[in-house]
Task: inverse folding
């Protein structure tokens, strides 16, 4: 075997695998979404979902969730990453604890927060123990859509801030500390250093983190199923319902296309807004 | 008999010609140093001899064997790397034994060889340690021992001392010289440090942009640099090159430049016949001598003079080159 | 965090200013420690409460108000384990995760090695495809695959599911192993070649032992990706449900004990996972994608 062939032989299995299980189904989603069950192009599947009473609420809920959760997580993660970078003792332990939710699925996170927020849950119990309420209150029902929304926001922030944290911590680690020292010598205080040194140099990491996290926010599914049930439709949940409960693969694929297009738009948006010219990178 | 014959080796990476037809004959048991600045192709040449890179064209022979197309494992060479490349997951013993185990040598012989080379490199007390527990100098010793243990036809060394601190480097240098002289292995050694090259080599190959400018023993390289480049690279400060100086009455035909080493001047405080005045610009007192930077007829000139001479910055000094030390170079920069 | 007072330009700081400076520093320090502690509690306390629920008797799990101290009663866990379908789902989750692990490491390691050690035409394109997979909601691809799997007879099989999970885990495996191999100096391999190894011998005698901890970490990561995945599992399995699919589909039907005990079982690998991978956390997301 010639030396030049080695790398191709080595990547071949994963290339074939990705072609079969990423590229092909990816094209197939579009094919399913735009073709009739008897063949032929159609937009009928999109009409089906657009006229469904759950479509607009699910779109609104998904976008709203992303809009509230992602910025909150970003601020929190930046704060946590800065704290980690200032820590000496116990840095590894704190980082370990803070990243635990990384390994927790949104299903498990939903269950955890259900245990807190349920009618029989710990938060009600706490409020009772300290004498604020006299009997169990039901928060998570259809009369309190904002409570359900808030519960999901909390559960999502709790679960998925860790991934941003990891990306930002490693990004901060790449910034040489001489830059801070130089800024400090020229009279920049901590606040100025954050805005003039850390954040600008962190832009590539912020970009990665935001793209990844926003896409995951569009995929929000199990948390919502548990905490909101049918009171809180989201895109991914609707895709699941159409595929599984209504057995309509075309409509499910149409939902998938909507989610894919949203993901693409946001990815492009972040790539554009947070663009860093190659020469200006560390 | 392990000579190394290198014939018309060419190598390029993309558009860059790293080696432009290199030919070199290395004798049995000879210690050859490939010397040159970074990017001159010396490491590439070494890696081609090892088989780690493949030449675009040309032939490599070790002894009578044409190894041009053989993988490294079949060339019976050993190599010491700049960063030592001591395997971190193996003990020192297993590191030294690694090559022997690959050759399926008997355990007795392995033990014997490992202990012998470890003793030679003074690391017999470290055999059960891991590389993480060793200092840089100790790792260096392990790397050399590992190379010698396989009793290679050819020993290749790629800047093996450059990661050591200055003092350790001096010590290792003299030790290496002794060990390698004793082992009688044909050795090719790459460095950019001319002092290292001068002190270790039987012959130095000075490389310049993918070519070998001169391949000769250290004295010859110092005294009779084959090209302007070699004269300018070897020696600290390097050889002076003067264009059409007033001393050129003895110049041969076609001579373009006079090459003269800084210490090869006759110096006088007063004007004498055949002497020319130079203006002293800076004086560096170096203890054993003084190093002057001066100007002669608009050309820079470096001179080493005895430390007792009472020179002053801005003053005038009278010089004449020692006639037997004058070297003449033609338009192409080659010695006449 | 350090806060500078605004009087630094004065040549001789008065004792007053110095005292002011140290006290501001103290306040910041106190704020720093307490917010770190708060965030630690924020992460750990909900998990603790899940443990409390899972280790309580059925009466307590369904009762109110709740105590914040666990009873250490195994009734809930036992009930969960005996609940119809749980054991099978647990087994299915383990099998699918194991398959995912094998596929993604088996295919990803060679590709990671190629990215780390070779320059070849198409390398950047390959890297782009790998990165691109992360810019798409991969579980969605379960939808068309559900249809395709029916055609090829892979529907409702754990192998089919693990193929989808592997397509989620493979890109990570490639990036992690690539950065792993990049961290092993190429000279170590070259030294092995010169000392008599062929490429494969050098790989398993020198590179493998050094990469093993990292490979383990990325295998565990692949395991957890599959273990945690809900959407594709729910779409692709019917009779062979994994634990996540089982829990999500029986949400309204199953009693609280099943949820909380199931939740605890679900997060156990997470804790283990982060412990194993903590050293590799940063290469995990292929963050050097600049």
Result:
């Amino acid at each position: 075997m010639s030396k030049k062939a080695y790398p191709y032989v080595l990547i071949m299995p994963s290339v074939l695998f990705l072609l079969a299980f990423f590229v092909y189904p990816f094209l197939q989603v579009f094919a399913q979404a735009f073709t009739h069950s008897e063949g032929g192009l159609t937009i009928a599947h999109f009409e089906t979902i657009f006229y469904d009473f759950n479509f607009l609420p699910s779109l609104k809920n998904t976008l709203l969730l992303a809009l509230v959760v992602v910025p909150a997580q970003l601020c929190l993660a930046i704060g946590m990453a800065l704290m980690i970078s200032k820590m000496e003792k116990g840095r590894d332990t704190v980082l370990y604890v803070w990243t635990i939710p990384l390994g927790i699925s949104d299903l498990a996170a939903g269950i955890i927060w259900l245990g807190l927020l349920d009618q029989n849950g710990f938060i009600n119990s706490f409020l009772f123990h300290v004498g604020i309420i006299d009997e169990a209150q039901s928060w998570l029902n259809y009369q309190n859509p904002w409570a359900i929304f808030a519960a999901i926001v909390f559960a999502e922030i709790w679960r998925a801030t860790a991934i941003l944290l990891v990306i930002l911590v490693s990004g901060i680690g790449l910034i040489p500390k001489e830059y801070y020292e130089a800024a400090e010598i020229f009279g920049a205080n901590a606040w100025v250093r954050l805005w003039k040194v850390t954040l600008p140099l962190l832009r590539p990491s912020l970009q990665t983190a935001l793209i990844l996290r926003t896409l995951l926010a569009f995929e929000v599914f199990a948390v919502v199923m548990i905490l909101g049930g049918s009171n809180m439709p989201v895109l991914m949940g609707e895709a699941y319902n159409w595929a599984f409960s209504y057995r309509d693969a075309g409509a499910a694929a149409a939902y998938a296309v909507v989610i894919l297009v949203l993901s693409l738009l946001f990815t492009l948006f972040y790539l554009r807004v947070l663009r860093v010219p190659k020469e200006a990178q560390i | 008999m392990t000579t190394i014959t290198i014939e018309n080796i060419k190598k390029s990476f993309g558009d860059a010609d790293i080696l432009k037809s290199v030919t070199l004959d290395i004798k049995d048991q000879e210690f050859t140093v490939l010397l040159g600045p970074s990017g001159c192709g010396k490491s590439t040449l070494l890696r081609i001899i090892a088989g780690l890179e493949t030449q675009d064209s040309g032939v490599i022979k070790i002894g009578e064997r044409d190894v041009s197309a053989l993988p490294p494992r079949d060339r019976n060479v050993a190599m010491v790397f700049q960063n030592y490349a001591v395997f971190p997951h193996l003990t020192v013993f297993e590191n030294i034994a690694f090559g022997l185990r690959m050759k399926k040598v008997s355990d007795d012989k392995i033990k014997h060889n490992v202990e012998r080379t470890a003793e030679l490199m003074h690391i017999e007390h470290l055999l059960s340690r891991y590389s993480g527990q060793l200092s840089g100098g100790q790792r260096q010793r392990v790397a050399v021992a590992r190379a010698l243990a396989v009793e290679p036809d050819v020993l290749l060394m790629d800047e093996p001392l450059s990661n050591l601190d200055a003092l350790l480097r001096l010590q290792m240098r003299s030790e290496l010289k002794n060990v390698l002289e004793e082992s009688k292995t044909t050795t090719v050694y790459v460095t950019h440090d001319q002092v290292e090259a001068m002190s270790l080599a039987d012959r130095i190959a000075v490389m310049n942009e993918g070519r070998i400018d001169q391949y000769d023993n250290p004295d010859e390289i110092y005294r009779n640099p084959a090209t302007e480049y070699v004269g300018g690279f070897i020696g600290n400060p390097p050889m002076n090159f003067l264009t059409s100086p007033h001393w050129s009455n003895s110049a041969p035909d076609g001579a373009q430049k006079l090459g003269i080493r800084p210490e090869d001047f006759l110096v006088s405080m007063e004007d004498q016949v055949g002497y020319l005045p130079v203006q002293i610009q800076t004086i560096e007192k170096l203890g054993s001598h003084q190093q002057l930077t001066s100007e002669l007829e608009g050309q820079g000139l470096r001179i080493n003079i005895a430390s007792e001479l009472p020179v002053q910055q801005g003053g005038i000094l009278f010089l004449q080159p020692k006639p037997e030390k004058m070297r003449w170079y033609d338009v192409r920069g080659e010695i006449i | 965090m350090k806060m500078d007072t605004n009087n630094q330009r004065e040549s001789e700081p008065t004792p007053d200013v110095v005292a002011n400076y140290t006290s501001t520093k103290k306040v910041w320090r106190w704020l720093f420690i307490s917010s770190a502690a708060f965030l630690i509690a924020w992460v750990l306390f909900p998990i603790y409460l899940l443990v409390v629920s899972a280790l309580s008797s059925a009466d307590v799990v369904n009762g109110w108000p709740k105590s914040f101290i666990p009873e250490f009663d195994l009734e809930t866990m036992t009930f969960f384990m005996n609940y119809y379908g749980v054991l099978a789902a647990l087994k299915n989750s383990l099998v699918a995760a194991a398959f995912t692990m094998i596929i993604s490491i088996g295919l990803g390691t060679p590709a990671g090695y190629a990215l780390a050690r070779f320059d070849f035409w198409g390398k950047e394109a390959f890297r782009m495809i790998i990165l691109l997979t992360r810019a798409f909601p991969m579980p969605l691809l379960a939808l068309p695959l559900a249809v395709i799997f029916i055609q090829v007879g892979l529907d409702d099989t754990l192998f089919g599911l693990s193929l989808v999970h592997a397509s989620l885990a493979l890109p990570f495996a490639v990036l992690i192993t690539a950065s792993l191999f990049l961290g092993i100096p190429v000279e170590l391999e070259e030294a092995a070649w010169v000392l008599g190894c062929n490429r494969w011998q050098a790989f398993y005698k020198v590179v493998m032992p050094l990469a093993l901890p990292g490979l383990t970490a990325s295998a565990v990561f692949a395991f957890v990706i599959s273990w945690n995945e809900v959407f594709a599992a729910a779409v692709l399995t019917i009779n062979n449900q994994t634990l996540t699919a089982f829990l999500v589909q029986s949400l309204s039907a199953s009693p609280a004990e099943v949820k909380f005990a199931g939740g605890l079982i679900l997060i156990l690998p997470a804790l283990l996972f982060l412990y194993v991978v903590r050293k590799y956390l940063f290469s995990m997301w292929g963050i050097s994608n600049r």
Q: What stands out?
A: Chain A has one domain: 20-116+157-280. Chain A has a mean pLDDT of 86. The two ends of chain A are 40 Å apart (CA to CA).
